Amino acid sequence: MEREGYIAEPAIATAVYLARTMRKPLLVEGEAGVGKTEIAKVLARMLDTELIRLQCYEGIDVNTALYEWNYQRQLLRLRIAGADGREPVETEQMIFSRDCLLERPLLRAITRREGPPVLLIDEIDRADDGFEAFLLEILSDFQVTIPELGPIAATHVPYVVLTSNRTREVGDALRRRCFYLYVEHPSLEKEIRIIRARVPEVIGELAREVAAVMQALRARRLHKAPGVAETLDWTRALVALRQDRLDVDTVEETLGCVLKDHHDVEDLTAQDVESLLAQARSPSADA
Q1: Distance (Å, rounded) from C-alpha 68 to C-alpha 101?
Q2: Structure confidence at residue 200 (pLDDT)
Q3: What pLDDT does residue 138 have?
Q4: Model pTM?
Q5: If the chain, 287 residues long, is cut into consecutive pieces of 10 residues, what is the mean pLDDT of each piece?
Q6: What pLDDT was estimated at residue 93?
């Protein structure tokens, strides 16, 4: 995983290895911004396969996730069947056939012919219980059932990664079908390694100072704690500004890369920034 730019502890690497080897879905939980989605992206790069992503949200339904009928094609075939004088049964077979389906992420993941893809079911906690129950057939049998066509089994069993920000509790039935991994915000040492791996052009003490400030910020009571994505965005912005160290003015001018809530920005005074920088440069920050 590190070759693909993902700095992983042994627990993460082991969970990914087992999920990959045993073809078991991997449920990854943790706060927003800790790198859960990136695990699926890295896995797809490692396997040199397609990443198919299903972004969950409140109200997501089967049509969005699995399939829709191509109504225009069905209507055209219906007109042709009428002109040809075909029997009703034959007409029905023509309009409810596989080539009249519009594949959505789940169906595409199990019917991909080129080989198994990585299926990312992102933020499953945002979907409702009914949709979660709908996923059980796919996660246990790797098949889906379309009423007009019957069950469709996977051509290749996909590698499945589900993520959850824990905005609601994911049900036990789904958990039983998955390996489980909890990801926390990175330690200071790990965050420095992530910065150097993903932004190799960073120079001087910048990587260590950025990581230390991010660690100190997350220790504050914020409306939205910054994640690893914000760390990398901020580092790239500082590199673009040709900075090799942090100072108060630069931090204040680039806070929008880090804090994404105006209350958090307003609450951070100049004295706080000075304190964060002093803390970041303290030898104890390396402890």
Answers
A1: 6
A2: 93
A3: 87
A4: 0.84
A5: 86 95 95 92 95 95 88 89 80 84 93 95 94 90 88 92 94 94 94 93 91 93 92 96 91 93 90 88 64
A6: 80
- Token pair in block for residue 12: 């993460």
Q: Which amino acid is at 50?
A: E
DSSP codes of every residue in the chain: -GGGT----HHHHHHHHHHHHHT--EEEE-STTSSHHHHHHHHHHHHT--EEEEE--TT--HHHHTEEE-HHHHHHHHHHHHHHT--HHHHHHHHSSGGGEEE-HHHHHHH-SSS--EEEEETGGGS-HHHHHHHHHHHHHSEEEETTTEEEE-SSPPEEEEEE--SSPPPHHHHHTSEEEE--PPPHHHHHHHHHHH-TT--TTHHHHHHHHHHHHHHS--SS---HHHHHHHHHHHHHTT-SS--HHHHHHTGGGT---HHHHHH--HHHHHHHHHHHHSGGGG-
